[in-house]
Amino acid sequence: MGNNPTHLPSFLPRVPEFITLHQITKTFPPNVVALDGVSVSFEAGEIHAVVGENGAGKSTLMKVLYGLYRPDRGQILLGNQSVRFHSANDAIAAGVGMVHQEILLIPEYTVWQNVVLGAEPRTRWGTLDVARARGAVQAKIDAFGFNIDPDAPVGELSVAARQKVEILKLLYRDVSVLILDEPTAVLTPLEVPQLFAELRRLRAAGKTILFISHHLDEVLELSDRITVLRRGKKVDTVPAASTSKSELARMMVGRELMFTARRAAQPKGEIILRVEGVYYRDKQGVSRLRDVSLTVRAGEIVGIAGVEGNGQYELVNVLVGLEHAEAGSIFINGHDLTHASILERRRHIAFVAQDRSKLAASVSASVAENAIMTHHRLNEMFARRRWRLDMRQAGAFTEQMRKQFTVAMSRPDQPFRALSGGNQQKVILGRELLLERPFLLLDQPTRGLDVGSTEYVREQIAQQRDAGRAILLISSDLEELFSLTDRIAVMYRGAIVADVPTAQTDLEQVGAWMLQGRNQRTAQSA
To answer: Least C-beta-crowded within 10 Å: which of 57, 369, 437, 463?
Structure first.
């Protein structure tokens, strides 16, 4: 630890016996302490998970190790040698690589072209050595047991296969440490075990796997050791075999979590949402929704499952009026909204969009301005004179929301972007629930949230169901769908291929429908 840090010393081993982050501190302007003296070691050939709530410092810590952030204080040690990374290229040169949650590949290129891009072998004339490049990628595929065609265009691959390509990019560069950020976030239940098998093979080959995840069941299944962060500090590093989901959650949030949404059984009410034979084509003329029919009753939660890109996003846009169906009809509470404006639909629909920063909120505006969105057009209490807003009423409304939905904020005029992801979602969810509409449309409401915030949002959803709201829940988290919904509808290539009571199916069956569809749809329950 007393060694002076050097810039990528040439004598460093490619596979150090351990990596140590010692007393890492990182502060972002003006005074946000993301990491506060964090020390943790990662051993060669282990799978090590880093968990914590949103804002706990997980991603910041991994980005320090990967060279994307430079720490204000502290050391990175490979073995006993202190190093200083000035960029991600420095980290890769030292054998540390990172696969980000957003897959960054060129769809038109083949697998091998994407893998070698930026590190292409050259002939003596300076041109790309195609045979050597393709052969090197094939060798890595064979060595690590990846079932993937090097000549396949990446745009034609599944999400899971594209994730393999990202990992191959790092293996091609001979990294010994792979950092994965939420590696299962976009995978189906059938794809997750395949990824885990591949990661275990990498561990057996001597690679060190570090990964960030919100899914504690997966963390316990896959990892050897787990480091828990809370508010920028390390709580503990524990063997996975000697801890539990509840204990990890307690360390992460400082209290016990229930993990199940409590709800009372109740009979179905009247049909609130009726979608009949909806078709939709995008601006390029590609069919995105094909004969979609669906009902949701009062006091019922219907879940939509499907691999992303199979029509869920388009269905949401058609329901809220961002896009218009070329055929079919949409009724809410008996009102024909097929050709209605967005504002008219909002008189009947409460809507939580999946993208907080682009569609659900204005991050550059204040908390109060975000809290009264839609309300300011439908509730005269916010109109001081004509189109002029009464910001005093807006502040009072925001304060009511803060108390009712336990939003951690300093004042109504605080910038929305200053809130944590979980508190931003509380503002959005609270705003929509206070509209008190008969139909609640939720698109990925817990995506990117930590376990504490996720539990809170799921409790709110269950309470709305018990209050008699009709809820359509689109989620990529099948465990969430199974814990909350009364029925699950599966979308495949723009069509609903199954619509079954949740109690009459299971994760494996729904996952199979998501990947393969089915020849004959299951009849909707009455």
So the answer is: 463
What count of Cα atoms within 13 Å lies in the side-chain half-sphere of residue 335? 15
> Does residue 203 or residue 377 have the better pLDDT?
203
Which tokens in the block code for residue 426?
Answer: 């509380």
* Sign for the pseudo-dihedral over CA of 35, 39, 44, 46: negative
What tokens were used for 168?
Answer: 């191959």
Is the distance from CB of 358 to CB of 416 less than 8 angstroms?
Answer: no
pTM: 0.66
Q: How far apart are CA 283 and CA 280, in angstroms?
A: 10
- Tell the CATH topology of 271-348+437-516: Rossmann fold (3.40.50)
> Collapsing DSSP states into helix, strand and coil, what is residue 246?
helix
pLDDT tens, residue by residue, 466-496: 889 999 999 988 888 998 999 999 999 899 9
**3-state DSSP percent of the chain in helix, strand and coil, to 5:** 35, 25, 40
Tens of pLDDT, residue by residue over 1-33, are 444 444 444 434 444 568 899 999 999 877 778
271-348+437-516 matches 1-7+16-95+177-182+213-252 in CATH topology: yes
Between strands 18-28 and 32-43, the pairing is: antiparallel
Which residue ranges make up each domain of the chain? Answer: 1-7+16-95+177-182+213-252, 271-348+437-516
Query: What are the b/e assignments for 210-231, b being 16+ CB within 10 Å?
Result: bbbbbbbebbbebbebbbbbbe
Q: For residue 332, give both structure tokens.
A: 């809410």
Q: Which tens digit of pLDDT belongs to each residue from 239-266?
A: 999 998 888 888 887 665 555 554 555 6
Describe the crossing of helices 245-253 and 451-466 by its angle, rounded to 10 degrees.
100
